Amino acid sequence: MEKTIDIGQYIAIAVKWLMANLRPVFDFIKTSGNAGIESIEWVLVTIPFFITIALFTAAAWRYASRGVAAFTLAGLALIYLMGFWEETMQTLALIISSTIIALIIAIPLGIWSAKNSTAHRVIRPLLDLMQTMPAFVYLIPAVLFFSIGKLPGAFATIIFAMPPAVRLTALGIQQVPADVLEAARSLGATQKQILFKVELPLALKTILTGVNQTILLSLSMVVIAGMIAAGGLGEKVLEGINNLDIGLGFESGLSVVILAIVLDRITQGFGNKMSVK
């Protein structure tokens, strides 16, 4: 069947225009982005494994529970003993860098969306698009703009993982009781003081839930990003699929699951502790 409307050709024209006119910008982002990711990766890989395991276990004990701490200790030790420690740290570096950049963009957007109805009407459908578009599609512009490697993996991960943080930041601020805001205004608080001393503290639990979701979505996308040579556990999973190596596929997949549970429980516990304060 012939196409009546070819939206794809306009997207392709826009991407080609960006590649032709903004190549130096993309090269700069790629160089600086790769340097940042590799720096985090170097730190994580250089730190002895037992220190990293001890730090994660202590965090799990402090913010979650003894059971989570025991799981963290056993799970991370299992990853090391299976020989996937370096790949796990590479994946963790990509998650950390992607999550930080996603939150730097997402939280201000969420605040703007909560306070401006026009911005909300524009941002909401964009978030719907970002969340429902198949994750593999994000790899295409990432490769076109930045070739293959870690930075395009982070680029695709940021787009995929950002929407929950925007939505939950906006939701948290919108749920601040009106009488509390009125009381703050009656005491002479400025808009800036209301935002930083009333709205953001009261919305903290919801915002931290968004941070938790961003981290978990980053982890799921980082595995897919292994298809464009982003490294880490994703490449091992892909290697297992390509070689029909069930052992390699299961062990690398199990490492992803353990890392996901550890990060989820610690960030969830941290969010609960902070909201209680």
Descriptive report:
It is built from 13 helices and no strands. It has helices at residues 7-21, 23-46, 49-63, 66-81, 85-115, 117-132, 139-146, 150-174, 178-186, 191-202, 204-224, 233-242, 246-276. The chain is mainly alpha-helical and 277 residues long. The model has no long low-confidence stretch (mean pLDDT 87).
SSE topology sketch:
Blueprint: H1 7-21, H2 23-46, H3 49-63, H4 66-81, H5 85-115, H6 117-132, H7 139-146, H8 150-174, H9 178-186, H10 191-202, H11 204-224, H12 233-242, H13 246-276
Helix pairs in contact: 2-5, 3-4, 3-13, 4-13, 5-6, 5-8, 5-11, 6-8, 7-8, 8-11, 9-10, 11-13, 12-13
Number of helices: 13
Radius of gyration: 21 Å
What is the distance, rounded to the nearest whole angstrom, between the alpha carbons of the first and last residues?
61 Å
Helix content: over 70%
Poorly predicted parts: none
Question: Helices and strands: which structural class?
Answer: mainly alpha
Strand content: under 5%
Count of strand segments:
0
Q: Biggest sheet: strands, sense, closure?
A: none
Q: What is the overall pLDDT average?
A: 87
Order of helices and strands: HHHHHHHHHHHHH
Assembly classification: single chain
Query: Globular, elongated, flat, extended or rod-shaped: what is the shape?
Result: globular
